[in-house]
Write a structure and sequence with these properties.
The protein has a domain of 182 residues: Leucine-rich repeat, LRR (right-handed beta-alpha superhelix) (Alpha-Beta Horseshoe), CATH 3.80.10. Helices cover 40% and strands 9% of the residues. It is built from eleven helices and eight strands. The protein is elongated, with a radius of gyration of 27 Å. The protein starts with 7 loop residues before the first helix and ends with a helix. This is Distal membrane arm assembly complex 2-like protein. InterPro entries: LRR_dom_sf. It comes from Euphydryas editha (Edith's checkerspot).
């Protein structure tokens, strides 16, 4: 077969994209070696009086400027200002913030994982490798372990339909809003436990209602942050039949919202038991 001729417009477009990416993805070291290029606006060089003082001719510039992009991060500037009086408390706070950012990135939904494994098998990888338990449709045993003990397929395979997920032991104090998105596409999910996941709030429940509200029948929210907005999110879960929550205590607004939910959904059973009653109720539902 003869190769198709490349249209001039397509050739220019591909050339433009390539050159554009090449310029955008240069490292700061390569840009520093190439030297500062004159900035132009509408074909004219940028006026001297409008440049930042550090970029004007004759001004002193530190070699550390290669580590700074267009706008330095405010947290970095704040930390540099505290260097003479830096305390252990500041270092501990900074380390905690870095760990939180890392965990949020670790729980983000990866389209590449779903494209390679599918929604169900991708969810198995995400939850099992983060100390959660997963049960497949038609199975009684739970898939639980770590990346060394559990051998999951590394490519798409038929027969993996996630029916139940237990996040009670989810690592680093529980699943976050970013991690809830990994429930997307689980059309057979009926049972979900978010027990003692301290990051589960109204935003998480609203996302679950939109993603899994039509199939989810059991939901355990003991130890989670419940408010009136959470009840509105629960009301959107049309298939929900059994809800386990912590005792609302003296929160009159939450009590009233739960009462209204029970009136509107007579088929929904809401339970706020202690630990022993909770385990007994969960066992009954599983059977």
């Amino acid at each position: 077969m003869m190769a198709q001729k490349l249209k001039p417009s397509n050739f220019i477009r591909s050339l433009y994209i390539t050159s554009r990416n090449y310029c955008e993805y240069k490292s700061i070291y390569e840009r520093d070696e190439a030297g500062r290029q004159p900035r132009k606006v509408h074909g004219k060089e940028y006026p001297e009086w409008r440049r930042p003082w550090a970029q004007r001719d004759g001004e002193w510039t530190s070699k550390l400027s290669i580590f700074v992009e267009k706008s330095p991060n405010m947290n970095v500037l704040n930390a540099m200002q505290k260097i003479p009086n830096l305390s252990f408390k500041d270092i501990k706070q900074w380390w905690g913030e870095m760990k939180q950012i890392q965990e949020i990135e670790n729980q983000k939904f990866l389209p590449e994982r779903v494209a390679a494994l599918g929604s169900n098998l991708g969810a198995c990888h995400f939850f099992v490798y983060r100390q959660a338990a997963v049960r497949l449709k038609g199975k009684k045993e739970w898939i639980i372990g770590d990346i060394l003990s559990v051998k999951l397929p590394d490519s798409y395979k038929e027969g993996y339909f996630v029916e139940a997920i237990d996040c009670s032991n989810f690592h680093h104090n529980g699943i976050r809003y970013e991690g809830v998105q990994n429930l997307t596409g689980l059309k057979h999910l009926k049972w979900l436990s978010l027990r003692n996941n301290k990051y589960v709030d109204v935003w998480c429940l609203d996302r679950i209602a939109g993603q899994n509200g039509e199939t989810l029948e059991f939901l355990n929210l003991v130890g989670c942050k419940l408010c009136v907005g959470c009840v509105f999110a629960l009301a959107r879960m049309s298939a929900l039949k059994f809800l386990v929550i912590s005792d609302p205590g003296d929160n009159i607004e939450l009590q009233a919202a739960l009462s209204m939910l029970e009136q509107e959904r007579p088929n929904l059973l809401i339970s706020a038991p202690n630990d022993d009653d909770e385990n007994e109720a969960i066992n009954k539902v599983e059977k």
